[in-house]
Structures are given as structure tokens and as C-alpha cells.
Amino acid sequence: MVLFANAGVDAEVTIALHSRAPDDEAVVILFGNEQVTLEFYDVASLERLRDIAAEGARRLRAVIEANVRAGAAEEAAADGAVVAAADRPVELDA
Q1: What would the DSSP string read from start to end of 8-68?
Q2: Which of 41, 7, 9, 48 is nearest to 26 (CA)?
Q3: CA separation for the pair 72, 30 (Å, rounded)
Q4: Which of 24, 30, 25 is nearest to 45 (CA)?
Q5: Per-residue CA distances from 60 to 39, 44, 46, 65 (Å)
Q6: Strand-pair partners of 40
Q7: How many angstroms from the chain centroid is the CA of residue 90?
Q8: Chain centroid to CA 41: how far?
């Protein structure tokens, strides 16, 4: 298989599982209104997709959580700098 594609999927994109008929030996994953599809004809390939998706979710969650922590630390440091600056005496020229 050779496929070149670039697509972004966010929480608002519908993702659905479909079978053309109850006895069809294929399942289709449909993405959004554009009907971008992935068709699977064997269980092993679908299970590999599950495993890769789970690993991708784990990695993405870890990066997002790390970025949230880093942002909170930067915000706390900035707040500390503002408090420290506010505690300094101000000299006024007479």
C-alpha cells in the first residue's frame, strides 16, 4: 500500500465505524463530513491501528500535561517576579 495524505482531526470531527452489510468482511472508519475512510479487511490490521492509536494518545497526553505544567511554572515565576517588584521600595525624586 502506498498512500500520501495529510489531515488534521480534532474533537469536532465525527469518527464513525461502518460496515456495508452485516455479513461484510470489512469495516470502515469514516472521518468527518468529507467521508475520508480507512477500510480494514483483517482483524490484525485493525488491532495494529488500535495499538498505535493508544500509544499516540499516551504520548500526546504526556506532552500536553508537560506543557500545562511548564506553563503553570512560567506563570508562577512571572507572578513571583511581579510580587518581588511590588515589594521593592520606590524612590521618588523630590
Answers
A1: ---TTS-EEEE-SSTT-S-EEEEETTTTEEEEE-SHHHHHHHHHHHHHHHHHHHHHHHHHH
A2: 41
A3: 37
A4: 25
A5: 25, 24, 21, 9
A6: 27
A7: 47
A8: 27
Domain boundaries, the chain: 15-87
Task: Note the pLDDT tens digit of each residue in 59-70.
Answer: 999 999 999 999
pLDDT digits (tens, 9 = 90+) for 33-73: 877 888 999 999 999 999 999 999 999 999 999 999 998 88
Q: Which residues contact 32 (CB under 8 A, 6 or more apart)?
A: 9, 13, 14, 15
Claim: this prediction has a pTM higher than 0.85: no
